[in-house]
Amino acid sequence: MGRNHDPYEPGGPTRPPPSLPAPEIHARQHSHVRQAHETELIEDYVELIADLIDTRGEARAVEIAHRRGVRQATVSKMLQRLLGQQLIETEPYRAIFLTAEGRRMAEASRARHALVLDFLRRLGVPEEVARRDAEGIEHHVSAETLERMRRWLEA
To answer: Which parts of the sequence belong to the HTH dtxR-type domain (predicted)?
Structure first.
C-alpha cells in the first residue's frame, strides 16, 4: 500500500481531509474575508496618507503612487473612493487631507499593526517576516483575537 504525502511535510503522511462547515457558516466565513480584503486596501491608503502628512506635512497622489508601486490612475480611483466615504478631503492640484473619520481609521490601523507586530516579535518571528506578516494579519484579525494578543503581551 502506497503512502500519502503531505505537501507541507515532504515524505510525511497526509492529514485526513478537513470537514466542511455547514454551507451558511462557510458562506459567512467567506463574506468576512471578502469584507476584510475590501477594508484592507482602504485602510492601507488612509494609513499611508496619515504617515505622509505626519512625516512630510502633506500627502500627494504622486507620492502615494510611488510608495504603493502603482500608477497614478490607480491612486486617483482610490482617492475618489475615499472621498465618497468621507475619509479624505482634496482639491485639484492640492495636497490630500484626512477627515476626522479618516484620521481615526488611520490611528486604529496603526494600533492594530503595532500590536500584531509586537506579538509576532515576542513569538520569535524574524523581524522581516514579522513586518510582512503583520501587514496582512492586522486587517483580518478579530477584535477578540487582538484583545487576547494584548493580554498575552502584558502577561
So the answer is: 39-99
pLDDT tens digit sequence for 37-63? 678 899 999 999 999 999 999 999 999
List the domain range (segments joined by +) for residue 123: 25-154
pLDDT mean across residues, the chain: 86
Residue 100 has, within 13 A of its CA and on its CB side, a CA count of 0
Residue 17 lies in a domain: no
Report the chain's C-alpha Rg in angstroms: 20
Q: What is the domain-level CATH number for residue 146? A: 1.10.10.10
In this prediction the pTM is 0.73
Alpha-carbon distance of 155 to 144, in angstroms, equals 17
